[in-house]
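Per reviewer request, we include the raw input and output of the structure prediction for the construct analysed in the revised manuscript.
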Amino acid sequence: MDFIINIFNTFLYRPLFNALIFLYEYLPGHDFGMAIIILTVIIRLILYPLMVQAIKSQKAMAELQPKLQEIQKKYKNDKEGQARETMELYKREKINPFGGCLPLLIQFPILIALYRVFLKGIQGQEASLLYSFIPRPETIKPFFLGIIDLSQSTTVKIDGASHLVWINIILVILVGAAQFVQTKMITPKTSGTGDKSNQMDQFSGMLQKQMLYLMPVFTVFILWRLPAALGLYWLATSLFSILQQYLIYRTKKSDSSAAATV
């Protein structure tokens, strides 16, 4: 266990912590929020090829759901036939059902490392982990644009009483809105036939709507009591994902249109 922790600290936590402090020190105005945004963009650019694969796989799997449901209905009493036809469908469509999982698994330890980095960076702790060529800041002002205190959540205690921090609440709501747009983009459009006899299609549509609306709410719930630094990171990565998905889908539509005209 100690071996895994050492690898995590050496190759993820410490480099990210040093990168954040480096950006904070050399950015004009020492804006901690801008350091978080730039670090987020750098990480997403490094992971760009993996995320392209994940987004394409998620979109392809979503668009394949009607065909999968047809197979499930046709072979509802034949599990072996259902599995065989499903694998044949994946093979014909050239889709790896697990293609979107690996990039997400790779991101998970990075998210954990960033969570620790932002918290420790805000508190100015762990200065001993700085590399020799990274300047050690005397103090860290955890502000974004001079108005958002990234060390605070949506509430702050003053004289024992809790008070709402409205600017941080707006940030969390923006994160939820970005999460909604991001989820909406990979949600397949329904045909709108209104066939109530198809219970499986009804269930699938209901599940997609639940995911579309519950994920943003769940995101807001998670970030409500966490420091705004995590919300700013989440917002930056969501906006980057939206742009990335837009570019991927636009390229895909262009390729489809070009193929149709040939």
